[in-house]
User: What shape does this take?
Amino acid sequence: MAAPAQPKKIVAPTVSQINAEFVTQLACKYWAPHIKKKSPFDIKVIEDIYEKEIVKSRFAIRKIMLLEFSQYLENYLWMNYSPEVSSKAYLMSICCMVNEKFRENVPAWETFKKKPDHFPFFFKCILKAALAETDGEFSLHEQTVLLLFLDHCFNSLEVDLIRSQVQQLISLPMWMGLQPARLELELKKTPKLRKFWNLIKKNDEKMDPEAREQAYQERRFLSQLIQKFISVLKSVPLSEPVTMDKVHYCERFIELMIDLEALLPTRRWFNTILDDSHLLVHCSLSNLVHREEDGHLFSQLLDMLKFYTGFEINDQTGNALTENEMTTIHYDRITSLQRAAFAHFPELYDFALSNVAEVDTRESLVKYFGHLSSNTLHQVASYLCLLPTLPKTEDTTFDKEFLLELLVSRHERRISQIQQLNQMPLYPTEKIIWDENIVPTEYYSGEGCLALPKLNLQFLTLHDYLLRNFNLFRLESTYEIRQDIEDSVSRMKPWQSEYGGVVFGGWARMAQPIVAFTVVEVAKPNIGENWPTRVRADVTINLNVRDHIKDEWEGLRKHDVCFLITVRPTKPYGTKFDRRRPFIEQVGLVYVRGCEIQGMLDDKGRVIEDGPEPRPNLRGESRTFRVFLDPNQYQQDMTNTIQNGAEDVYDTFNIIMRRKPKENNFKAVLETIRNLMNTDCVVPAWLHDIILGYGDPSSAHYSKMPNQIATLDFNDTFLSIEHLKNSFPGHNVKVTVDDPALQIPPFRITFPVRSGKGKKRKEVDGEDEDTEEAKTLIVEPHVIPNRGPYPYNQPKRNTIQFTHTQIEAIRAGMQPGLTMVVGPPGTGKTDVAVQIISNIYHNFPEQRTLIVTHSNQALNQLFEKIMALDIDERHLLRLGHGEEELETEKDFSRYGRVNYVLARRIELLEEVKRLQKSLGVPGDASYTCETAGYFFLYQVMSRWEEYISKVKNKSNASPDVTEVSTFFPFHEYFANAPQPIFKGRSYEEDMEIAEGCFRHIKKIFTQLEEFRASELLRSGLDRSKYLLVKEAKIIAMTCTHAALKRHDLVKLGFKYDNILMEEAAQILEIETFIPLLLQNPQDGFSRLKRWIMIGDHHQLPPVIKNMAFQKYSNMEQSLFTRFVRIGVPTVDLDAQGRARASLCNLYNWRYKKLGNLPHVQLLPEFSTANAGLLYDFQLINVEDFQGVGESEPNPYFYQNLGEAEYVVALFMYMCLLGYPADKISILTTYNGQKHLIRDIINRRCGSNPLIGRPNKVTTVDRFQGQQNDYILLSLVRTRAVGHLRDVRRLVVAMSRARLGLYIFARVSLFQNCFELTPAFSQLTARPLHLHIIPTEPFPTTRKNGERPSHEVQIIKNMPQMANFVYNMYMHLIQTTHHYHQTLLQLPPAMVEESEEVQSQETELETEEEGTPAQADIASLTDSSSSQDTFTSQPEAAPSPTETAPDQTGAGLRPEAIPAVSEAAAALEEPEAPPAEANSHRDATPAPEETK
Assistant: This one.
């Protein structure tokens, strides 16, 4: 197998290159945003740029990147476009810019929306150009650019401007392009269409000739484009050289066809046109398909197109077709062919009279039709309306091969989609893993097209939806598997031995050589299948490795996935491995097959089962694992061996590789998706169309749901009646009680429910009354019944004063339907989620709610807040492995809950014993839950009923207060409650207390009744299943856990009514969908009532490691984001309480209207300035350090030493002033920089108690969902903006800080970026050098924005800051020594101390003179250059006298002083080795953020 050529990486131009470019000079003259005096518009500029820069460089991405980045489209091209100046160069320039925006994944249509007048004219010019002759004005390369532009248009139907233009190309009138007989046939099939067609004709007649001609042009556009493509395709020779322009044109054209077929609005009428043009037949017979190298991608794209043209869907209605309907369609086609044969072609009688199953295979069709002449075949096709009728005197112009293929491909039996899927192996093999068209390397640039499905806005059917996600999920995991295989196998260094075998020169932790491999079982196939039900094999390896690695191998659990690999190296012993060269040929990799562990075998050859029993100790190093092989793959391999004489793959394996368990769950998720496709997946009817992207996007909003609930109990949501009134602005609130003293929460609210029907019939005069009624809320305060006399009986209360938008989100979440809440940073998303859960729990006690989040951390935050509300903890359950991290003593995992139930049962039975004793009842009532139940029924209830009959007032007498207490039967039991139990103030109050006491007792027995099952079920597993299925009301898990365990949950009979998803915009589309289907439908209907999604699509999307899937396939689009794009109504939370108002301004422009909560202005922490720093946020410019800006030791592993050192120096400065280190986090946009900063922290201040470590040093992507008071951010890049150009990353970066944000970056690069302008224009308005106030202590009393009373110092660069921090540190050590002397007043110590201080003073003097003796910590550079830094920077080391020694220590926190003696001891020699620029040359980039 030939290894694919490595694609080239696009190197972004540096700032200096950008400035030197001809384009940049023009930009500065004509359109750059920062230039005030621009030259007037000149069409010649556009012509010149297009000819000299774009065409001359053959559309080089680098040139187009520069143009697009300089805002050429926004500020010059479209701004000045009009029909008068329109030219070829103008059109092409606009198309190039739009295509580049799509490639970079930035919004492309915004400019056009602002100035839409000339767009229709522009679009018509594009259509005309796309049909131009290839040898004419437009070259093939240019027409490929136009095809790509059209493809982007067809994929942007949600943009009104685009849709209005595109619609004319793909609506019913396009059927003008059909041949007349075919048109007649199609109209006959659907009588309703005939009516529409006649209407279209009538309208056409009314048009004036010019408009009609224009309309005809548009309608025939796609038909003509297909004909043009066919002529290009036919010009490709079979073996002579072919220009790649032709190949790329053909590939892009097929991509366009696939995209048109894969969307229902475009497919509806176009599919018939495509079928009528016989495009697929032309393609499959073309020379390009048979060219192995050039035609490989074209063939793969063609297979995708074949799949979509034959997709199981009714084009007109959009309904999915069942297997029976597909069979009927196939039978109709064959029988109509048989009828035509019987009536007109005597030579086909045999065919006409055969049964269908006998003649519908390819072989039999070729047998019957192969001997006919071309003319006869043409006549057969014309009878079926496939070709125009052949005049009797003429011969056909089509060749025989084409006519035969046309008839055969149309009538052969097809294997159904679901069968195809079930026969597909789930593990990738070597053929897929290293196929660049399907799994591109990390260097995918976004230029070419790929044979990958795309996730856009709409899908054809649920099957299509699941299938696209299935394929992408499979390939994304394949990419990760490839990285693991390449890493492990190259570490093992397979070389060829002298005798031609394999010898391993290295070792790998995750892979081992196989000693023996045997297939031990091939089970018989199920009826109707041709693959075995299971295939098992034994793999023996020799674990002569370190103990902890041996434990990892022995710890392989059931269902873990491993890979079996065959290598046959050709390189002799000792050959070096080069990571830059193709991997396969270096290691001689031949086969890769997946397998799933069943277990390890013991001495007797039996599988050791997972379980509580200790595992047996095995002797020796040899271990054998029993594994399951993929039966589909095994069947394919065996068939290949028998039929083609290929070698048996299963005799060749010599390496087994395992993967990290966390990254290895792909097979379980794929099986889940496949199972979903094999079951009738029942999505609730109210969600079905929205998930596919059709219909009214607001149809699932609660206001349109037929089962809307009028009265809801808001429980503890409102803090007062004022809070309630403020929460419904514009509504008229009517309270059912007039006494203000009784208007206290909890409240029940009755909303005016308006059914969606019958509005039109309302009389005009009744409308005012109607709107008045629609605005009236009826509020009824109610009292929660007394729960008992103990303090813990009091319900826990919500204390948050929700805003009116948060209340709207809570109200929507309580109503049935789909609720989407967009929660910008700091707007209380989690509080809203928890309140919704609590309210559903109290309003609908019989319903169960499923909580799904992206990360365990988010689940933990939710659970900690749920615990603070009035929810009985026996109803909470947490599934998955994250419960270990919960910061509560309580364990909410399945077994934790079982233990809780058992412990609680014992506690409650003790209470029953006490009650029994207090009532003086003999016997053992507290033996089991069952005996306790009888005791309640016969002893407790009888006493209560007797008591009630005594104290309930007789009809005539007024009730006596004392009776309530006198007759109360449970005084002795409640003796341990706060006394007196009865207040004696009024009969009603005391009666309520008595009933509360009885409720307390009754609750004990209801809980025991629920716990009875744990007495009957003996094993922990059964008890935990019972809890999951019956007891728990609120069940939480991560989306990954849901995908992995769906099969088990459905099998258990798991049921739920509501789903709440947190962090929904961070969850993959498919992982959001699977939780909807974790239960079996009841009578064919889903019982799901509510789906609440809370997220923020303006923050980062799900992590997709491969750029091609992320960008080309749009796999990073979450379901939440897609719903927002479709137009599903959202509740946008609009008040943040996290950050200072000034910091919020850096990101609030991205949201509709994001304001601040009052406390952000009022609380002292927000109004006080940041001590020692002049500004609360600042962008600090960092120039090259030692001539170097960014460096890239490994692909995408970016580092910037200057910024890293500067960030750490500022961190040390803040800590020395007295800032707590854990209130500061350091963030960066790349993994490489993160490792470099961690290195520097370890060397400078890691073990120093005076400074400490920051709370976190991590990447922006990893820190999403977290916050801290002060954030120091390094943007790393100096050549190109990189992935910060994704505004979502910018929003996350800007919104992590509460009180201070300090950004280190190359300002000249970032300020030019169009997408980042709103934030960077605010940042660059402040000085770009760091302004510090070294003498201001922490915490300060200065108000934010006030001029400081202390002197401000301006830091020009990193070396100056580093020296400054060093001096400050030394002064701090000195002043604390003096402090100790005065404190202790011990003469001998004073002598010693003064000596020490003297020695340090001399050190300081030498350092000032420029010798690098102690200066390493200050210079923070390469040791070789530390001297240059000092001598070349005279201002870099301010002398001790300048920095006011008496005040430097003033900011020291008192608690730090005892630690100073340690610090002095630890850092009397404050020498730390400098961090080299390449300190991480060998580090492998962790994949998640190496964008």
User: Anything to note?
Assistant: The chain has 61 helices and 30 strands.
